[in-house]
Each structure stands twice: as C-alpha cells, then as structure tokens.
Task: structure prediction
Amino acid sequence: MKKITVLLSIFVLALGILAAGCGGGSKGDKKAASGTPAAKEELIVGTEPSFAPFEFPEKDSKEFTGFDMDLIRAIAKEMGYKKCTIRNMGFDALIPAINSGNLDVSIAGFSITEERKKQVIFSQPYYKSGLAFVVRKDVNDVTKFEDLQKKTIAVQMGTTGALYADKLKEKGAVVKTFNTSDLACMELKNKGADAVISDLPVLQYFLKNGGSEYAKLAGEPLTAEDYGIVISKKNPELAKQVDAALDALKKNGTYDKLYEKWFGSKPAK
Ligand code: ARG
Result:
C-alpha cells in the first residue's frame, strides 16, 4: 500500500513538472527587461550604427539594418516581445545607458573584454571577429603593426581599436579619435590619417563598398575578439533569456540563415 502511495505521488509530481514546463514555454509568461508588465511589450536596444555590415542606416529608410540588427530583432521575437525599438547613440554612451536602465540591451559589435565584463554582462559570443588595419593606398612603408609608429592613425572612440592604437602613442604615433567609425574612415580618405584600426569584417566591408579606391589592408590581423550582446548586471534574468533565445535561433537555423545573408558563408563551427 505504502509503495503505491509513493508511486502515485511520484506520478502526480511528474505531471506537475510537465505542466509547469509547458506553461513556461508560453511567450506571455516571459519576464521582460525591468520585470514590469509594460516592459514585456517592447525591448529597447541601443546601438551605434556606423558599423556595416553589423549596424548601419538602411538606404531610403529611417531603419537600421545589418547582421546585429536582424539578429536582435529575431532574438526579441523569440523572447516574445511585441516590439523591438532600436536607439542610436554614441558608442561610448552605450554601456552607461545600459547601466542607468535607459536601454534593455545593446548590440553594437561589442567585443567581449575583461574590462567591460567588470561593468556589464555579456551574452554568449555570437560572432568571431578581431582587429586589423587599413592604410591609405599611397602608404607603402607599412607592412606590420609596428610600422604605424611614425604614422597618424584614425580610430573610433571607446573601441578596442582605439585601445590598441594607444599602444603606439608613446612610440610616436598620432592617434585621432572619432565619434563614429565612418568618420575615422573618412579621415583616411581626406588624407588626415594614414591608417584606420578597426574590426576586420568592418574594414573588409568598407573596402568592398568603395573604400578600396583609396585604402588597402596591411599587415596581419591583430587580435581575435568575440562579439557579445550587452546587458546590465542588474538584470541577470534578462541575460539568461537572451542566451536562451540565441540557443534557440542557433538550433532552428535562423542564426545560420542570417549569418549567410550578411557574410555569404556558413559560420565556422
Ligand atoms: N568591436 C569593437 C569594440 O568592441 C568595435 C565596436 C564598434 N561598434 C560600433 N557599432 N561602432 O570596441
């Protein structure tokens, strides 16, 4: 008799767990950024959209497009948000805006670094990137990073590229810092700089879309960096949900589809 009671209660318990599992899967139950019901409606995303092919203004539209933009919209949808609003701000303003609660998440080709990890939570990595540099086409005495010592380098403020350029400052390089990545490249075109240090896929896209008329890649890639989505340390629950959504999109093929759309090949496994 006792055995039957034990078995029965196990059965009832299992049923309960199953039911809870199903309930948890319904989108409406998922908590939003601030945990308030109103916030479930809308995911507020910050970016700095001068970073093609990850985030840049869509032609003839007020929207932003790119791999990051497609990905975060898919993530928001997967998480059950009705709306995904993208806000444009300075790159160095994004982490402060996350921490003050003005943004739910930020996706902006953010490299996962130890320094930043002290301030925010990163999602699981979603893209393998790294720093590289281009020089003006008429610059022929730069074949490696150290050769930039006597040169003028343009970078975007607050980026890992800017940090990397600083290594050459004490050796005599002039580093010019710009608010956007586009402006840094423009400086090269206008001969105000000899080189730009930035993320390799962004430099490749820039060269392919007109940049190769006056710029070329030089030297070897400088670093390997992973991109992650930025979330406030006050919101570990949201970070878990973003990771779960990324897992789901990787599993159901959406991630690969977007990757191929923007980079022309399947992601390396
Ligand atoms: N990956 C580099 C970093 O984390 C550059 C990112 C710049 N992103 C942008 N949207 N402008 O510092």
The longest strand covers residues 42-47. The first helix runs from residue 2 to 25. The chain has a mean pLDDT of 89. The CA atoms of residues 134 and 217 lie 4 Å apart.
